[in-house]
Design goal:
Layout lengths: L7 E10 L2 E11 L4 E5 L6 H8 L7 E6 L2 E2 L5 H7 L1 E4 L11 H8 L6 H10 L15 H14 L4 E5 L7 H12 L6 E5 L3 H7 L2 E6 L2 E6 L1 H5 L2 H7 L4
Parallel strand pairs: 3-8, 3-9, 6-7, 7-8
Antiparallel strand pairs: 1-2, 1-4, 4-5, 9-10
Helix pairs in contact: 3-5, 6-7
The protein binds adenosine-5'-triphosphate.
């Protein structure tokens, strides 16, 4: 029997703001090179959880392990250097640089021509390689930023609403290319768009009022009565 050791492991992770508990006792494992999704209504604690994983916010209690390293209290820079890359909801790119230059600037180690081509092709930007970032439409800026995070050659890629502001076709293309990352990098995506989450076929965790109310395949989640109640607004 093969035992998969989780790459990222959260145990009883909590975060309070004053007396308000934004995240309470979250325990979850993210396996190596798996696709994972975190969903939940507005204010459920999704971004707070991601912020704790990448070191933007300290945990109030509980532990976060990356491999066998405890990263719960580490600075964001140190966590990034260990191999956890984060893309925020609003694209932040170098507007006057070309797509390829943006990738080179983001790379932690020099990218070979093959690595560069692979990233360009993954995020559908091969034909735009020499386009100045400021001239890209919003959707391609989102992809550029995912490419910039991939240029760091991370072990974990954290994405906060990568489909924000994208068209239906762009959203579908995004889930298609994220699926190709399975087997290459551990991906954790926060999303609101249920069609996208269904398409992604990822391990899905549902947060509600800061607590995990369900975790499993998207089919399990979709058929879970409590999750349906939460999304239909009955709780
Ligand atoms: N710095 C902060 N100070 C005080 N309260 C905060 C802070 N950051 C988040 N919160 C509160 O914590 C709760 C969880 O917020 P969070 O942004 O993590 O939710 P979310 O699930 O990502 O929501 P959304 O889907 O709307 O982005 C919210 O009630 C929010 O107002």
């Amino acid at each position: 029997m093969t035992v998969t050791i989780p790459l990222l492991s959260l145990r009883n992770v909590s975060r309070s703001f004053g007396t308000f508990k934004a995240v309470t006792d979250v325990s979850e494992d993210f396996g190596p090179e798996e696709l994972n999704c975190i969903i939940g209504p507005n204010g459920a604690g999704k971004s707070t959880l991601l912020n704790m994983i990448c070191g933007t916010l300290a945990v109030s209690s509980g532990s976060i392990h990356f491999g066998d390293e405890s990263i719960g209290g580490m600075s964001g820079d140190k966590i990034a250097r260990l191999g956890i890359a984060r893309k925020f909801q609003v694209p932040s790119v170098f507007p006057s640089l070309s797509v390829v230059e943006n990738f080179h600037v983001s790379a932690s180690n020099a990218l070979s021509a093959n690595e560069l081509d692979e990233i360009l092709s993954t995020v559908n930007l091969s034909v735009d390689r020499d386009t100045t970032a400021s001239e890209l439409p919003h959707g391609k800026k989102q992809w550029l930023e995912i490419g910039m995070a991939l240029s760091m050659q991370p072990k974990v890629l954290l994405l906060d609403e990568p489909t924000a502001g994208l068209s239906v076709d762009e959203t579908r293309a995004t889930s298609e290319f994220l699926r190709t990352l399975r087997g290459k990098v551990t991906v954790v995506v926060i999303e609101h768009d249920m069609a996208f989450v269904r398409d992604l076929k990822a391990h899905t965790m549902v947060l509600h009022h800061g607590k995990v109310i369900a975790s499993g395949s998207f089919e399990d989640i979709e058929n879970n009565d409590l999750v349906r109640d939460v999304y239909l607004g009955r709780r």
